[in-house]
Amino acid sequence: MTRATPPPLQPIGPRSYDSETPNASRMYDYYLGGAMNFTADRELAERAKTVLPCTPSLARLNRSWLRRVVDICLDAGINQFLDLGSGIPTVGNVHEIVQRRVPDGRVVYVDYDATAVTHARKILEDNENAGIVHGDIRDPDGVLHAPEVRALLDFERPTGLLMVGILLYVGPEYDPAGLVATYRDACAPGSLVPISVITTQLVADQDPVTHKQILDLIGVYHDASEQIHPWAPDDLRSWFTGMDMLDPGITVLPEWRPDGALEADNDSAARLLGIGGMGRVRGADTPDPSDL
């Protein structure tokens, strides 16, 4: 297959409405059965499903992992969250998971897509403990000093710093390790940092058919406003520098503290594509991470 030439690098910063260029956030919404997407998003998402049929399963596995890691944070007593690259609100939003257990729990979403931000603001307009920043996670200073963040989050207390799926769209030229470190350093000891990405490394040896399909999917996303950047497990592991890893370390998403949900997806070809792990920010008084 001949792949399109990747588009030039775009400037860092929030995006305005563009219904003509497919957007990864809106495509993800489409895979999950949402309605906040445009014709261009649906058309490219269908192309994606043609080259990698398990794409919707991969999206659902990532969403299920998000729910599990938020619950782990809540179990640890964390009641405030910064969700980087949150995407379009859909079923099982972070603030819903949090506030079901902790009614006054606080959540700040961050996304640079205008559709995601507008939709989230409508959902959150009566929720004084949740907000969204129209910002780019590649600008950590802008995000961390945004009024919504400063109003709702107290970085002197442990935070759930969610980087679920977002670094998939951050290429090496933006130094993802440096971004993780900057956000980590803003958080108090005891904060928990879950990160998930897509990898091609595991399927290369175990499932050559899916390996070819994921490479073709990367080519499809050259026609979107965001491109896919798969990472090796060792890359992901290196981003947890300065943190203690929680068990079971870096694993494929269905094997990270499974709870029996999404059984069909757990056994699909997507199971070897998504990987994740969670780290705890170190401090003198932080307990052993094996306690969680």
From TrEMBL:
Pfam families: Methyltransf_19. Residues 1-21 are annotated as: Disordered. Gene3D superfamilies: Vaccinia Virus protein VP39 (3.40.50.150). InterPro entries: SAM-dependent_MTases_sf, SAM_dep_MeTrfase_SAV2177_type. CDD domains: AdoMet_MTases (cd02440). Residues 1-11 have a biased composition (Pro residues). It comes from the Bacteria. This is Methyltransferase. It comes from Kibdelosporangium phytohabitans.
